[in-house]
Amino acid sequence: MNYKKIILKSSRERSLIGRHPWVFSGAVKDLPLAENGEIVEVRTNHNELLGYGFFSPNSQITCRVFEFNDEYVRIDEAYWHKKLKNAFQLRKALFNDAETNCYRLLHAEGDFFPGIIVDVYGPIAVVQLLVKGMENISSIIYTGLNQLGFKHIYLKTKQNTQLLEQVEQASRWIGEIHPMPIIVMEHGVPFSVNVESGQKTGFFLDQRENRKILGDWAKNKQVLNTFSYSGGFSLYALQAGARLVHSVDSSKDAIALCDANVALIEKEAKHASFTEDCFDYLKRIDANTYDIIILDPPAFAKNARSVDNASRGYKNLNALGFQKIRPGGIIFTFSCSQHIDKDLFRKIVFSAAAESKRNVRILKQLSQPEDHPINIYHPEGEYLKGLMMVVD
Ligand code: SAH
User: Are 291 and 208 within one domain?
Assistant: First the structure.
């Protein structure tokens, strides 16, 4: 098969030679006459082959490279199935099904699969397709997932699936429908997940290791979990023997999920939930109520333009945390904004800490887990960062 070619400007080919997988529109010298989603070759200004990617003529990112190779590669079903199997093997080495049976199987660029996310919940694979090129090969991905043993595949789109009619909902299942919700295990902690109506693919899998760390510190503690969603951090704290846990989220559906999950482990007596804005909640509570506060908001910076506003949001949130935490208490603070890197996040938290005039020490720097790998040439993939701090 002959692929059409994208020729790069000589002034803009360095990052691609350095294996960064995105071709920005400004870097293109010659555009191919190719369809949206077509597989194209990426070549230097001197016509040397760098690799292969999905063409997106209408996007800022004109091409997403999935294979760096200076030789001809046959990109067929076997090619994709092999890559999928590699990703699966990495996860098999990480997890023991009885302890953890929910994880990310494909993490887009982090697995050299640009434009696709696949999250696993027991026998279910939830697929999100983010570029046309991936849509074009989706049936190959589905057969590959079948071969790995996933008989239930759910196609999740960005729109709010709660609004879908039941018939339409059913049409999103590829292969056999699986009844909802499903109970999955994460480090031996059970969670009820609804892949049809939940946020993202149903659960925030990326906080698994950070929840475990929280659990190590939560015994006999009073814990506040802000932006709690389905109670991920709350359940770990309760399982670890926290004296009480409060979960706060502005979404009534999220709070209902959280309460249902707390009921699964029969810890209702030690838990209370609040459907409320977290900033309002933090402002109204007395200082020194909590030994541990978790701040895990949604991405405040959705794009590069909103970084300034988002930084203010993170600063205000963390400032409230520093004001309210009990002396000797611990704050777990996070940002999942791709556009706010680790250094900037640390500066923001630093400036919030400085306002509090309290001694603050970083005990641990937190990140995303191994099933969310970061392609070293694609630092944008490192989206989750966090700090665990003790406040005197
Ligand atoms: N920590 C969670 C994931 C948080 S996702 C986990 O481990 O699973 C972010 C959550 O913040 C969502 O559930 C959303 O409903 C909630 N949220 C967004 N803005 C909020 C606000 N201003 N106040 C309270 N909750 C908010």
Answer: yes
**Is position 189 within any domain?**
no
- Residue among 201, 249, 366 to mutate when testing ligand 1 (max atoms within 8 A of CB): 249
Pocket test for ligand 1, best of 184, 250, 261 (most atoms within 8 A of CB): 250
Residue 118, domain CATH:
3.30.750.80
The answer to whether residue 197 is domain-embedded is no
Q: Is 299 in the same domain as 281?
A: yes
pTM to 2 decimals?
0.96
Q: Residue 149 belongs to what domain range?
A: 77-182
Angle at 110 between CA 120 and CA 254, to 5 degrees: 45
Atom of ligand 1 nearest to the CA of 229: 13
Token pair, residue 155, equals 């196609």
How far away, in angstroms, is 392 Cα from ligand 1 center?
A: 27
pLDDT tens per residue, the chain (392 residues)? 789 999 999 999 999 999 999 999 999 998 989 999 999 999 999 999 999 999 999 999 999 999 999 999 999 999 999 999 999 999 999 999 999 999 999 999 999 999 999 999 999 999 999 999 999 999 999 999 999 999 999 999 765 445 566 667 768 999 999 999 999 999 999 999 999 999 999 999 999 999 999 999 999 999 999 999 999 999 999 999 999 999 999 999 999 999 999 999 999 999 999 999 999 999 999 999 999 999 999 999 999 999 999 999 999 999 999 999 999 999 999 999 999 999 999 999 999 999 999 999 999 999 999 999 999 999 999 999 999 999 99
Ligand 1 contact, 277 CB (< 6 A): yes
